[in-house]
Amino acid sequence: MDYAGLAEAAAEKMGLYRRDPGGWRGCRRTSEVSVSWRPSAEFAGNAYRGEGIVPASPRDVWECIKPVAGGPRTKWDQNVKDFEVIETISDTVSVCRTTTPSAFMRIISPREFVDVVLTRQYEDGTMLSAATNVEHPLCPPQPDFVRGFNYPCGCFCIPLPGEPDRTQLLSFFQTDLGGYLPQTVVDSFFPASIVGFYSNLTKAVKALKA
Q: How far apart are CA 114 and CA 130, in angstroms?
């Protein structure tokens, strides 16, 4: 499997989504994030877009969200129980397994996701983490988890000119949770989950700076 090629394709998709603001319909808004959705072109579900300003430098925000084993994300992100690197492909590409706890009053049982993940820094200081689902021989489906599938997804940490202690965080999620879930549950879960992601991240960066 061409893991590097799949990772690069996911990063390109993130760039396309970032440049294409059309067709998104707002569904949730808080003081921290605006969430919108549109039908996914990748699978029979929806893509979600989160956009907000995080009160911390891009470096601090990236420290909290970067996809590394043993990183802080398992501590603050309520949707990440464990994160492990299955294979390192290069300095910027790795195959990773993420497990999630039960959610939505236990209606959604624990999930596992196997993705190829790419990280990249751009000339303007923007940092990207992009991912998409893959299979890996060292990571067959586990009996205690439902295998879910992330279609091209990612987060951009974007510096704000003249505001070194604030970061625009632009995120895209399109996930097939797998299993047999009512569509109403799925449609309610993701906007609430993204709101929680931004809220908990904001708390995490404040704790990091304290």
A: 13
Of 60, 19, 42, nearest in space to 170 by CA: 19
Task: Find out whether 50 and 170 touch, Cβ atoms under 8 Å.
Answer: yes
Q: Which helix (H) or strand (E) element contains residue 94?
A: strand 93-100
- Exposed (0-12), middle (13-18) or buried (19+): which is 168, by Cβ within 10 Å? middle
Side-chain-side CA neighbours of 37 within 13 Å: the count stands at 18
Tokens representing 82 are 């464990």
Would you mind telling me the total number of residues written for the chain in this entry?
A: 210
pTM of the model: 0.95
What span, in angstroms and rounded, lies between the C-alpha atoms of 79 and 196?
9
Model confidence pLDDT, tens digit, residues 121-158 = 999 999 999 999 999 999 999 999 999 999 999 999 99
- Predicted confidence (pLDDT) per residue in 73-93, tens digit: 999 999 999 999 999 999 999
- In whole angstroms, give the CA distance from residue 60 to residue 1: 34
